[in-house]
Write a structure and sequence with these properties.
- The two termini are about 40 Å apart.
- By secondary structure, the chain is an alpha+beta fold.
- The chain is flat and about 80 Å long.
- It is about 30% helix and about 25% strand.
- The strands form three sheets. It has a five-stranded antiparallel β-sheet, with helices on one face.
- Strand 1 and strand 2 form a beta hairpin.
Length: about 280
């Protein structure tokens, strides 16, 4: 089953064990730093295989667990508000995007980790003392990149769905303008950037689909013949539909499935496949 610690947050997969859970149930999610309260967003189901060993759910969350979780969320919210106020007084170009509050058994072990973004390295030596006094804790300031900040804050992408990095995407891979050119997207980075201001991550994991299509499809401008005997010039590719757009000599424009298009390139690919 899959659970999320934050609403619309990243999915974490668990072995439900012997209990039955339903979507919306609150459960205890084991982590390296202790047990977290999470909500079931994907009910238990059998799968043929799973990459890696799943942690076992620690059982349903008790009222005490829910109460502790709410208190911790409030503590983090208060710490984030105070940190923003102190940083604003110092006039530093830092944007706080998240706070982790670790309250250990002894007061001097209490640690507040503050995640922030900044356009460059910031001299926060004077800031640390004021933050430590305001929060009565040791302070760990951690500068993060734009992509990690978007993952923490969350949001909705151009596709209308929750950001990939806050739901299922765990690792960030390099994305370049070359991928955009292969997919026929505009060369303007502003039009193909995500909420983080970087090129959209989906350009990377959709790239193999475009490469496979372009290896088989006729090139733009090529004159081809379909299996129905119709001829025309290729004027466009529709990769999601696995089709090409043709213009007939009479000016009519049609869209044909890639399987029905005969071209020099497809014949060459077919011969290569048979040879291999």
């Amino acid at each position: 089953m899959a659970v999320a610690v934050e609403r619309h947050g990243q999915l974490h997969y668990l072995d439900p064990g012997t209990r039955a859970y339903a979507v919306g149930d609150w459960v205890r999610y084991p982590t390296d730093d202790g047990v977290e309260v999470a909500q079931v967003v994907w009910a238990p189901e059998e799968v043929d295989a799973f990459d890696g060993e799943l942690p076992v759910c620690a059982g349903p969350a008790t009222p005490a667990d829910r109460s502790r979780d709410e208190e911790n969320r409030q503590v983090r919210a208060d710490a984030q508000r105070i940190a923003k106020d102190v940083i604003a007084k110092h006039g530093l170009p830092m944007k706080v995007v998240g706070v982790d509050f670790l309250d250990q058994s002894r007061d001097y072990d209490r640690l507040v980790a503050i995640y922030y973004t900044a356009p460059h390295r910031v001299d926060f030596r004077q800031l640390l003392g004021d933050l430590a006094r305001a929060l009565d804790a040791r302070i760990d300031l951690r500068q993060i990149g734009a992509r990690d900040a978007a993952r923490i804050v969350g949001g909705v992408g151009q596709c209308g769905r929750e950001l990939c990095c806050t739901s299922f995407l765990k690792d960030f891979e390099p994305v370049s303008m070359r991928l955009a050119r292969v997919q026929g997207l505009p060369a303007n980075p502003l039009q193909i950037s995500g909420a983080c201001g970087r090129l959209m991550c989906c350009l990377k994991y959709e790239h193999p689909l475009y490469i496979d299509f372009l290896q088989q499809a006729p090139s733009i401008g090529e004159h081809i013949t379909t299996t129905d005997g119709e001829t025309g010039q290729v004027i466009g590719h529709d990769v999601p539909s696995n089709a090409v757009t043709l213009r007939h000599p009479n000016g009519e424009i049609i869209r044909c499935p890639l399987e029905s298009v005969c071209s020099v390139r497809r014949d060459r690919v077919a011969r290569k496949a048979v040879h291999e």
